[in-house]
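Bug report (template v2)

What were you trying to do?
Predict the complex of my protein with nicotinamide-adenine-dinucleotide.

What happened?
Run completed; filing so the output is reviewed.

Input:
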Amino acid sequence: MPGLEGRVAFITGAARGQGRAHAVRLAREGCDIIAVDICADIPTMTYPNASEADLAETVALVEKEDRRIVARKADVRDYAGLKAAFDEGLAEFGRVDIVIANAGIIRLGDEEDLLAEWQDVIDTNLTGVYHTIRAALPAMREAGRGGSIVITSSTAGIKSSPADQASGLAYMASKRGLVGLAQSLAGHLAKEWIRVNTIHPTGVMSGMTMNEAMAKQFEQAAASGDNMIAGMQNALPIEMLQPEDIANAVAFLVSDEAKFITGIAWPLDAGFTVR
Ligand SMILES: NC(=O)c1ccc[n+]([C@@H]2O[C@H](COP(=O)([O-])OP(=O)(O)OC[C@H]3O[C@@H](n4cnc5c(N)ncnc54)[C@H](O)[C@@H]3O)[C@@H](O)[C@H]2O)c1
């Protein structure tokens, strides 16, 4: 991909799944990486987050591509901690060209504590994305070289699925909210050649989906046809995407080949939203 050699990408949720795939793919294209991940569980979730060992594996994979990486344990909900982690990466590499605001969560399963479940999803998926962009944007603007910001939304950010539980509703609301955030920033930053886009993946094989809680959701959907994932199906005959499929699209989107693309909401969804 043209224009990626020597650039620096700041990626959240980089310990596994799509975040790791972005780190490895962009390293292969010649980028150095500032990676953060919470590496800890959030009590209202029903599946585990990534671990420190997962983040160490991302470090090893990036280094295997002969690129450098600064990887820190940080929670996107905590602006001060996130900014400190980003600043360490900035001090090491001296620049930031790409931001991939990817960290995100959902609770799979029945509602138990509606206020906490709503808040954790909103704080991570919406406020956390704002924190991520806000931490990196001043350095990107001051450098005057332009840049590319990619926000990981979901098909849920385009097409809502029936839901009545706090976490599922917060997921839909946060992922749709990201589109507004991206569009406002895209309009404002365009004159500085800073591009802002959202991506909207359908089901991807990652820690969020390949776990016991999701297996239970599939069983429940098959038995009763009545839960958040019942009725979710792609138009193309492919059940789930791989993290690398999303990373391939993002490598294009942050490259100079996509230099005219800003303010879009790009479905990476095997036709999910037109079905
Ligand atoms: N997997 C899917 O089917 C799917 C579909 C559409 C969109 N998405 C979105 O893609 C993004 C990446 O998810 P994934 O599929 O790779 O799942 P994943 O659970 O494997 O990866 C998410 C990563 O974010 C980290 N994380 C969670 N909370 C954090 C926090 N507060 N601070 C920092 N890091 C945190 C986790 O430890 C994990 O490493 C998410 O925003 C998710 O909502 C996923």
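What did the reviewer find?
The chain has one domain: 8-263. The mean pLDDT is 96.
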